[in-house]
Amino acid sequence: MRTEANSESPYGGPSVPKRPAGAPRFGRDDEFNALAAMYDGATHGRAGSAVLVGEFGMGKTALLEALSEYARRTAFAVVIAKGSGLETHLSGGVTRQLSDGLTRALGGAPLKSPLEERPRTEHDQTAALEGFLHLVREVAGRGPLLLAVDDIHLADAWSMRCLAYIRYRVTEYPVLIVLTSILGQTLTGEVSLLELAGCSPTIIKLAGLGVEETARLIASKSMTFTGKAVDCREATGGNPFLLNNLLARLAPGADVHTVGSPAVGEVLRARLRVYPAAAQLVRAVAILGEDAGFDRIAALAGVDERVAVEGVDTLVRLRLLTNTGVPAFTYSFVRHSVLQDIPLATRAVSHARAAKLLADADVPGKRVAAHLLEAHTISTPWGIDILRNTAWAAVFEGEEELAVRCLKRALTERMSPGKRVATTLQLSHAEYRIDPGTAMARVREAVGYIDTHRIATHTAMMMLLCLCSGTDNQLAVSAASLITARVSSGGPEATWPLQCMIYLAETGNSLTPAPLFSEDWTPGPDAEPELRRTHAALLALEVLRRGESAAEAVRHLSDALSDDQGQLFEQPYFFTLVTATLADEPALTDRLCRLLDSTDEPFDYHLRKGSMAALARGIALQSEGKLLRASVYYESLLRLFDERRATSACPIAVLAVAHLAEVYTDLGRPDEAETLLDGIDFDGTEQLFQHNYLLYARGKLRVATGDTQAGLEDLLDCGRRLERHGLAFPSFAAWRPLAVRAALILDRTELAVMLADADTTAADRWDTPRARGSAMAALALTREDEEAERLLHKAAELLETSPARLQLATTLAELGAARARRGHTEQAAADLRRAVELSTHCGARPLTRRASEELHTIQMTTKDTAHGLTRQEGRIAMMAARGLTNREIAETLHLTRRTVELHLSGAYRKLGITGRAELAAALTA
């Protein structure tokens, strides 16, 4: 039992050498050295004790073996016993191992001893304990003794009592007692761990390997995973046993946090048998994951909640579970190992039960669906709707593969023909994002399931209502067209509602010209009132698209809104919202908003109940010039879309962004407008019809901030796209009046005249005060002073009869400036004061500032300068004399180029000169 050495200790053994080669590797140096330092005391006759504690698999046994080898090298007698779960209830099992080792150390053969089992009488117990003590002292009297028990927590009660008995009776002997135990293990029975090891033993807790040591361990086994040291340590806590098993199971490219080992699960299951219900609870926690509440764990494990609480407490102390409010595995590798140890059929049943528990507790559907996907061999017809709703959300959150898995799982259940058609079409939508060809084949498969006209029509309409983005809308229209062909044998009454929906979808979300709505598509005399209202709304829409009479559009829309109920207005189609507003009919707009407020949840995933009403109210308020109130509605909508990450995907979101950017520009908050537009993926929205309004809003912002050329390009691009779409209505996005002003600033007079004439023609055809007044004001800017003043005056009169307060303020500001140029200062001042009042009420600070400056100039220039010029004429003349071009002067003074030209002409006339070359001399004369 001893090795030879060069120098002797006081007890005949050699002095303690340096740490030998072969000591434990990978981060156990500190622990080993702390224990080795205790050997010196033992060799000098001082007894000591130490306890190694750590999680299962942390390397306690390996470290104890290294210490034993070290002890043998230093001439210690080494006696080691090992606790076993199979012997925990066998009295004297560990003591017999120790007594056998001690007897061998004395050179004798092991003999039967009363220490094998607990004696019956107290006298015999005392004799047995004294015999064991004598044996220990006899061995220690010959030299240092290492007395160790591995896994002391598994030792029997009598053996523990024997160890406790000798602990305080060998303090003057060279005895080193080392025990190992599982971290968190509570010793039960009559002896505690402190009584075994003394009141102040050296406690050494084995922690997991660090990242560096983990990397070294990985490198010693394989170079393939050396870059995954951090993930491997996180998944196992640096536990050497777990690390080795993880590396054995890890495949190249695999996600470390999803790997498990059934062998580890089996070992864990065997070790947990000694704890009541622990194995069942561990399985329940593994199955439930993030939803592992105590009540659900107990229900899934099939135990009383009190038992579950006590069991979880034990598992937390054993460091298998985290010490948190919701029990969870400390290491992901252990959880997946437990799952892989569960037979597939049992696991599927457990996931199905977990899904039902969570569904009954109203847990979010995505987490319920995760269990339903795992329960793929178990029939769960109650979960079909959960799977479909989860898939619906997943598509719009960019998780198409999850959506496909959910829908394929749903289709394994028994369901009605109508639900199978709808689910198959929903699957085609998810697949469309991945493989359009497969998706269209899936549509044809769905059409094959149709057995009634009602199912076909309802399903196609739901698809049209739900799929709103550009590419999705194309799929919806294609599917609806196939279904229409399938049900055409049912006659017009069967196909007409579906044809209406296809028309709306192509009109609202397509970039290609939508088919004209024919009045031949008329409901029959026995048609439902709802169908007739829908027909009226479509007629109003078609009148608006063609830009024909607003009065006719209002008449049709009044018929559509004749009842307080109507399914049409649950649909998120832009034109049905704004027809009343664009026709300057506030009463109809208010009726529409109230109707939208009363409808059910929208079919569109991106929307919530009230979203469409908020948009309609925002548009109505903006059209009346109530900018701040309109911005509140738009901002609330965008918060919703931002939460759903749909700001660049949903047409309604894009429209809200564009309107809010326009409002911010009018409010004098260009930085906020720019930030808003910078957050939009213009390339991604280009497939949406609403992209036109986005271009208009950006063009308006650019012109307002001095980037006139880029702004004009945006406005013209908006116009070209609207023309390709077949939209002749002049005021959907009032791009022409703004483009006229931009063209004049850039000295593109011919373009300005052409745009103004075209807008006037369109406005006359639509024939509302707003449209005609705005077009006439833009036309006035392209004319000479006298005609300009006349046109602006008439435009102001028209706008006075409309709700368009901001357009009226703009026109009055331009009218005041025109009258001031012609010397009509009193009338000009009155116009400008009204412009200031209206723009202030609207919150349009840039317009207020400009009108105020014009008014101040008039007030300060009622007297001529020394040269007979007004102050404005003198200022412009001085800038021209210094060499500034008309465009530079216009941009500096926030005037149009035409205004600058008119002021210069007046200055030339008063100074008696013919042109710019004579200005400098005339002004200094």
Automatic annotation (TrEMBL):
PROSITE patterns: HTH_LUXR_2. It holds the Pfam family AAA_16. Residues 862-925 form the HTH luxR-type domain. InterPro entries: AAA_16 (IPR041664), P-loop_NTPase (IPR027417), Sig_transdc_resp-reg_C-effctor (IPR016032), TPR-like_helical_dom_sf (IPR011990), Tscrpt_reg_LuxR_C (IPR000792), WH-like_DNA-bd_sf (IPR036388). The keyword Transcription regulation applies. The keyword Transcription regulation applies. Transmembrane segments: none annotated. CDD domains: LuxR_C_like. This is Regulatory protein, luxR family. It comes from Amycolatopsis xylanica.
